Amino acid sequence: MFKKLRAYIIILLISAGMAFAQGSAEKKYPLRYYGIVSNLNDQNILNMAQDLFIAQIRGINYISLEDKRNSEIKKSYSSISSDKDGAEFFSLVENSEQIQGETILFYARIFRPNPDEKWECTFFAKNTQSKIIYSQTRSYDSHYKVLLDAKMLIQNVVAEASGNTNNVEMPVVPNKPLEHPKNLNVENIAGTWSGEDEISKIVLLRSGRGFVIFSNGATMNISILLSDENSNQKFRVVQQDKFNASFYPDIERKTVLAFAEDATPIEWNLTMTSPGTLEGTKKTLVASAGGVEQKNVNVVWKKK
Questions:
Q1: Can you give the pTM of this predicted structure?
Q2: Rounded to an integer, what distance in angstroms lies between the CA atom of residue 113 and that of residue 235?
Q3: What would the mean pLDDT of 272-301 be, rounded to a whole number?
Q4: CB–CB of 266/260 below 8 Å?
């Protein structure tokens, strides 16, 4: 009888340990996103940045996001734009709001001392349990470069604040760049584009980089490569982030995850058929009778 009882207790302990481990793996950290503190007057730029940042936070699978951009403390943002270490901002939050349990408080600061100086962007995250403030800061020549680097910086600072440093995504090593013929210029396609049902916005930059914002909130960094084929302007746009099931919103997540190891980066091969129009193919995963297959599909992009 005693042996049976002991065996039963051991089984219970093992089951409890497995349940605890599973629960720990699935733990989601509550994160409150307060938007951007800035001394800039260009609300269009700030709105674009705010939307991009929150989309990138939504893509972090261990985060439970609460959007606090319209919090009452927003009225005080202009008076603390010079707050470099985040202490003043987080003091303002904690004195104004009820916060229970371990929570990550997150905001961005974009500051430009003078119109002809660089843009300084800092992402701040504070763990309310440890009381430690984490931050990542970079300086840029343009606001578009702020947006390009945001994804990795956000992931880094949130990972540090939550202790999930093993979850930081590493960028894909891009394919060898094509030669850039002298008569081709990325400036011909720089700007904001649309054209695919699952994508809300595509931003292509003069630097040969850019990003895609999907309708489901996922974001993808891309590179723009050039080729000269029969004197036509051919543009090759290639995914620079590692595999993400959210990049295939029209395929069931479970199905597409099974192809994570075999999937190659999404790639668009486009030709400018007229000013403001790019046409070509997109090499991606598509649903098929057998599950999923890699295929070229026709796409048309229009410049906004």
A1: 0.65
A2: 37
A3: 90
A4: no
